[in-house]
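hiii so my PI (J.) wants the whole complex modelled not just the main chain, which honestly fair. so below is everything: two entries, each one labled with what it is. i double checked the lines twice but i was tired so who knows lol
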Amino acid sequence: MAMEIRPIPVVTGDDARKFVEKAERAEKKPHTVKLGITRAEFDKMMSKAKLC
Amino acid sequence: MGFLTERCTLRVLTRDILASCKPFVCGNADLDDYFSNDALLYQEQLLGKTYCYLLDEDPSVIVCAFTLSNDSVRVDHLPGSRKRKVNSSIPYPKHLRRYPAVLIGRLGVSVDFAAKGVGSELMDILKMWLILPDNKAACRFLAVDSYNTVQTVHYYRKNGFEFLFSTEEQEAQNSGIELPLRTRYMYYDLIGVANS
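here's the output for the full assembly
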């Protein structure tokens, strides 16, 4: 039996403060990320996918 | 175009696929055991949905596979100014913030396709998938309980993930498990992808 998939534990203390600060900073000062896949490529891949 | 987008087809993992495909070997005993024996059990109980990419030129070959489930990053924190105003009688759960997240329960690339950029391409696909407008539920963070090995942690760091807990001691304490940790929680903020 493989290791179980565990839910994410609650973050507390200094780690919690830093996490919230980082999340709020990202909301206030939006940055962009360039992915290695375009929307057109993604859509083409999904049209070929069989997800049912 | 990448290898997965160009030469593979995304499928939901099923018994038929497992039965018709060659053994999926990632070079990690736990991963191989999980995808062979446990993934469909999680799926049947709606605890994790597993997807795989099959090679178009030979659909009996699983190139990579991954399991996703809904989760959240729960943070027990109130900013100092707000904390002072909050009456201490407020129940503990109300101090919590919850950020919607998708948890990568497992992610593996076949040893035959390792070190060819497939893992990073897959991560970019996941990031895009989760922020598109037709995604049914909002998702701010992509999280993973990564194997605590140099190679696996390096892979996630290279793809922009950070540790959720600053130290293994803190993570062990919050998780209620003993050191040494076999896995580490890591996360990726999708807001930058959504802005792009």
